[in-house]
Known about the structure:
By secondary structure, the protein is α/β, with parallel strands linked by helices. It has one domain: NAD(P)-binding Rossmann-like Domain (Rossmann fold). It has nine helices and seven strands; from the N terminus they run βαβαβαβαβααβαααβ. α1 packs across α9 (215-226), α3 (66-80) packs parallel to α4 and α4 runs parallel beside α6 (152-172). The protein binds NADP nicotinamide-adenine-dinucleotide phosphate.
Amino acid sequence: MLKGKVAVVTGGSRGIGKAIAEKFAENGANLAIIATRATEEAKKFIEELKEKGVDARLYTCDIKNPEEVESAAEEITADFGGVDILVNNAGITRDNILPSLSIMDIGDVIDVNLKGTMFVTRSFIRQFVRKKNGNIINISSVVGLMGNKGQTNYAASKAGIIGFTKSVAKEYGRKNIRCNAVAPGFIATDMTDKLSPEQVQEINKQITLGRLGSPLDVAELVLFLASDRSSYITGEVIKVDGGMYV
Ligand code: NAP
C-alpha cells in the first residue's frame, strides 16, 4: 500500500510509533525514525527493518527544539531524497492534579506534544507544497476530546493537536496535502505501564470493549490514513479507543 514511499515517524523507536513503523515497512515504505535517544532497542529495531530490505534510519532529535528539528528534517530529506508521509507520534505525559503540576510539567508536555508536532510539520510542509503531495497524521488522544482528571496539561496538548490538524488540513488541502488526527484510547505501551493494576482495572470499566488496545490497533488505522485508500479524508479525527468515548 505504501510501496516506494518515504515516511517519517516521530517517536518511532517504541510503543505505538514502533508499531506504525513496522506496519509501514510491511507495506513497502522506507522509514526515517525520530527519537530523543539511540537506545540499543532502537538500534536493534532499525537493524531488523534493514534485514527485511527496508531503508530505515534513526535520527536523534528532541522535537521541542526547533533548530534540532530543522536540521533533522534537512538530513532526512537529503538522505531519502524527499518525504511523502509524516506521522507526528512522539509524546509524553506528566500527570498530576492541576495544583501539583510544576511549571515544567506543564511546559514540557505542551512543548513536546503540541509545539513539537507544529515544529516537525512546519519543517516538512514546504517540500509537500512544492511537490503538491503530502500526508500528515497526528497522534492526538481520546483525552483531547473528552478531558481527563489528572491530565489537564496532556489533554490540553492533545486538544491543541486537533485544532492544529484541522487548520493544516484547511490551509493545504488545495495543495493536495491531507492532514488527519488519530485519537487512541488506552493502549498498552511503556506510557501506560506506569499505571497500577488497580488503575488499569478502573480504566477497563470505562471501555466498551472492556480492555486496553494494542499498538497494532492504532497502526492499522494510521496505515489506512497514510494510504490512498483514504484519499478523500482530511481534517478528520478518528478514535481508536474500544468505545471508551462514545
Ligand atoms: P511511549 O511508548 O512512551 O513512546 C514515546 C516515543 O516518543 C518514544 O519513541 C520516545 O523516544 C519519543 N519521544 C518522546 N519525547 C520525545 C521528544 N521530545 N522528541 C523526540 N521523540 C520523543 O509512548 P506511546 O504510548 O507509544 O505513545 C505514542 C503517542 O500516542 C504519544 O503521542 C501519546 O501521547 C499517544 N497516545 C498514547 C496512548 C497510550 O495509551 N499509550 C493513548 C493515547 C495517545 P525516546 O525513547 O528516545 O524518548
